[in-house]
Design goal:
The chain is of the alpha/beta class and 453 residues long. It folds into two domains: 4-96 and 116-224 and 403-410, Aldehyde Dehydrogenase, Chain A, domain 1, CATH 3.40.605.10; 231-388, 3-Layer(aba) Sandwich (Aldehyde Dehydrogenase, Chain A, domain 2), CATH 3.40.309.10. It has helices spanning 4-19, 24-40, 42-61, 67-73, 77-92, 132-142, 156-170, 188-194, 209-217, 241-253, 269-285, 294-300, 334-344, 357-366, 444-447; strands at residues 100-107, 110-118, 121-126, 146-150, 181-184, 202-206, 231-235, 262-268, 289-292, 309-311, 325-331, 349-353, 371-374, 393-395, 403-405, 411-418, 438-439. Keywords: Amino-acid biosynthesis, Cytoplasm, NADP, Oxidoreductase, Proline biosynthesis.
């Protein structure tokens, strides 16, 4: 017997076949309807979010929910503006569906085309952050992927309101298949979704380290994402210190509760005594707790205004705080900084501040992270800021997609071979024909008639 949850997933899977062939114009019209609907229904969204925040703040006081989770839950007018801007940016992105990636002549009249296509049915499981719904729905719609969403109970009202507003807007556009986007709401449905490997082609988890790790460990479905966001900024002895102060402060303080915020500051020993006191004063002014190795502690303990100063322990180097806490270590070389990053980091985002060109290249070459920043804040590691319109997540994987993943990470490809009665038997035996394997500069859409809805 098919359960209600399985029925929803099967419906979305069937809709994915139709959605894959919807025209670009139709998808863009649906995206514009989505953005307009968010604007028109602002008050409904904000009211729903207030109900979630009231419950979340009670849970936070009881120790059942972290402050970072509460911060991520908040929706404001400016956040709604950001949701709308993200959707409209997706409208302007190239539609990658049906793009010819390569074309090859196997023999005269026998041509092979590699063509991009949607992955199919995407499962998105996320905690807090209701803005995940419009971000991912926009990218999945434009890339022709159906989507099953499962948000956390702490954002139940916000997620439901935003989801219903968006789906109603999409269904105004004739030709978009109904049922392509589904919302799951109960805690039990998480395990059901993880067992849906016959239907769901890719899972994207968004949430805490333990949450993402749980998803990765409990499903056969491929998972795109990262468990940790342990990001570093290394201030070199040849750094422009004015740049370094701005970059480090922005990387930690601009928004501490996110995966691309700096968690460890590495400082070259030659400039540590000059750089650290002012940097610590700036961070102290923003209520950042400093967890220092022995050398940085010795420098900063002499300063009267530094109150939030403790000694770091080994665990600090591999901790994602998602809070106003920063570990600091003094290193004797760029090599030691790189070694520390590759040992303790999570291959997410790491930055160097230096004016030395050779060191810039060395850091970029040897730091094994999905985003490497040179004289720029780690907070730039974001799909919207990378020009992807929005992002489905940030991946530290080394296959399929890496870094902030936009629409290209929701695409795969297929091969289309066009012949004229050709058979393999002609290429076997003493009188076998030979393959030409000649590259072509042709598009499949120019060879066969497009058949889009």
């Amino acid at each position: 017997m098919v359960t209600e949850i399985e029925a929803k997933v099967i419906e979305a899977k069937k809709a994915s076949i139709t959605l894959a062939s919807v025209s670009t114009d139709m998808k863009n019209r649906a995206l514009e309807e989505m953005a307009n609907a968010l604007d028109i229904n602002r008050q409904a969204i904000l009211s729903a979010n207030v109900r979630d925040l009231e419950a979340a703040e009670k849970a936070q006081r009881k120790g059942e929910l972290s402050q970072a989770m509460v911060d991520r839950l908040k929706v404001s007018d400016s956040k709604i503006d950001g949701m709308m801007a993200g959707i409209r940016d997706v409208i302007h992105l190239e539609d990658l569906v049906g793009r010819t990636m390569s074309s090859l002549e196997l023999d005269n009249g026998l041509e092979l085309y590699q063509v991009s296509c949607p992955i199919g049915l995407i499962g998105v499981i996320f905690e807090s952050r209701p803005d995940v719904v419009p971000q991912i729905m926009a990218l999945c719609l434009k890339s022709g992927n159906s989507t099953v969403f499962k948000g956390g109970s702490e954002a139940l009202n916000s997620n439901r309101t935003i989801f219903n507003i968006l789906v109603e807007a999409i269904e105004k556009v004739e030709g978009i298949p109904k049922g392509a986007f589904q919302l799951m709401e109960t805690r039990e449905e998480v395990m059901d979704i993880l067992a849906m490997d016959p239907y769901i082609d890719l899972l994207i988890p968004r949430g805490s380290n333990s949450f993402v790790k749980f998803i990765q460990d409990n499903t056969k479905i491929p998972v795109l994402g990262h468990a940790d966001g342990i990001c570093h900024v290394y201030v070199d002895d040849e750094a422009d210190l004015a740049k370094a102060y701005n970059i480090c402060f922005d990387s930690k303080v601009q928004y501490a509760a996110v995966c691309n915020a700096m968690e460890t500051l590495l400082v070259h020993e030659k400039i540590a005594e000059k750089f650290l006191p002012k940097m610590a004063q700036m961070l102290e002014g923003a209520s950042v707790e400093l967890r220092c190795d022995n050398r940085s502690f010795e420098i900063l303990e002499q300063i009267d205004f530094i109150n939030k100063l403790v000694r770091a322990i080994e665990e600090d180097w591999s901790t994602e705080y998602n809070d106003l806490i920063l570990s600091i270590k003094v290193v004797n070389s760029i090599e030691e900084a790189i070694e520390h990053i590759n040992t303790y980091g999570s291959h997410h985002t790491d930055a160097i501040v230096t004016e030395n060109k050779k060191k810039k290249k060395k850091f970029a070459d040897f730091v094994d992270s999905s985003s490497v920043m040179i004289n720029a804040s780690t907070r730039f590691a974001d799909g919207f800021r990378y020009g992807k319109g929005a992002e489905v997540g940030i991946s530290t994987n080394k296959i399929h997609a890496r870094g902030p993943v936009g629409m290209e990470g929701l695409m795969i490809y297929k091969y289309v071979l066009i012949g004229n009665g050709d058979k393999v038997a002609d290429y076997v035996g003493p009188a076998a024909k030979e393959f030409t394997h000649k590259e072509l500069n042709k598009k499949l859409s120019d060879v066969i008639t497009e058949n889009k809805v």
